[in-house]
């Protein structure tokens, strides 16, 4: 009783009670003939970073998930390096190196420029803290209290600062899973293992280092990381590692939304997105009122399942395409994937606003804004994502008009291919007439003569049925379409009065090169 009272007293005075001590483990050096890592899978720039640090007299190793993937015979997507050099010492050894982060101070060593650039992330060995400063708030509300602190936690035990340097043996102990706590020396071709990670990798087992409940409280996002590894690698969570997950899920409410959003994007771009959704449901992170990922809540049913019918087919095909591109080593665009995930909520809102009397294009813009506010909110990078997603969605209305000079300007848009791939997905899922996607594909690939013939066919079809193929919407009561005149002409006496303003409104034309080419298109 007295000890508990003292612990509470110190906690209130600004020092958190010490968590359960994490075991240090025992250093084991594994030779090349045992671990079998193929040197051809290494990144030469990561090896160069290691050599630069060791030549300067520091310890340096490739670390974490890269070592795990190498042991499994996979080429890692990213290479991280760990060293006993401080961030300032690392920065001083490289021409283009930048210290980033507050929660964890690390160094980004940059090679190349533009789209071809590569970042090697270098972290300093971290120590197991003897004690932590307790902060009454989070990253935003407790900024003043966090200033000058090297290690601090919030009321739930979540780590807000972790910049205490130490030896490699302690750095290994503070990592999450055993398979992520191995170090590889590319010069001596040695794997350094402290916690049996090599054996767990071979057994395809995810095992937390230390007390799982404490480690999840330090960083609840470790639950999402467990989902990602289980889906990507086909690993199973060890029973003790799985046991406290359900009780720790509510702690994710304290995680900054931008970090959760980034973790969701990583999760769905592993090349195993559908398997990731299965794992999320299995651990209770979607459905059943989980409310961890607002975007996924918009896409899935209340029980966390894929919707049936056209909607489910559309999303499933989008994820299958994304997985295929990742597994082929091709780039994927987060904006395209998110546009697919939120499309049907946009569509529902769009239809409702149009039924209220708003014109189609302004109605779509209003629907998009409402969905962004409800599902994405104010997160880092929203502006870039919003611009790309908005362009893909707004392009769907332009695809419906197959006349005039607009068809030529549309296929010259930087994001045309992404917009067309979105249109093709809608057609393949049965949401729209496949003939519309076929027409645009033929037009984009055709010769000048082919294009003129396609335009003539479109005009003839419009004269027979003047209303173009539109996004699904409720039929207007009392509407009768005109059977006379070219659809490109101004509204005449025979056309419905309600449609006259929309047909007279001129399209706003984008300036050439107005799009952002940084995001990769959805298909080659």
TrEMBL record:
Annotated NCBIfam families: pcnB (TIGR01942)
GO molecular function: poly(A) RNA polymerase activity
Active site positions: 78, 80, 176
Low complexity bias locations: 462-471
Family from the record: Belongs to the tRNA nucleotidyltransferase/poly(A) polymerase family.
Domain tRNA nucleotidyltransferase/poly(A) polymerase RNA and SrmB- binding positions: 234-286
Disordered: annotated span: 462-524
Acidic residues bias spans: 487-497
Function in brief: Adds poly(A) tail to the 3' end of many RNAs, which usually targets these RNAs for decay. Plays a significant role in the global control of gene expression, through influencing the rate of transcript degradation, and in the general RNA quality control.
Keywords from the UniProt entry: ATP-binding, mRNA processing, Nucleotide-binding, Nucleotidyltransferase, RNA-binding, Transcription, Transferase
Poly A polymerase head domain sequence ranges: 60-207
InterPro entries: NT_sf (IPR043519), PolA_pol_head_dom (IPR002646), PolA_pol_I (IPR010206), PolyA_pol_arg_C_dom (IPR025866), PolyA_RNA-bd (IPR032828), tRNA_ntf/polyA_polymerase_I (IPR052191)
Signal peptide as annotated in the record: none
Annotated catalysed reactions: RNA(n) + ATP = RNA(n)-3'-adenine ribonucleotide + diphosphate
Positions with biased composition (Basic residues): 503-512
Enzyme Commission number(s) from the entry: 2.7.7.19
Residue stretches making up the Polymerase A arginine-rich C-terminal domain: 357-471
Gene: pcnB
Enzyme class: transferase
Protein name stated in the entry: Poly(A) polymerase I
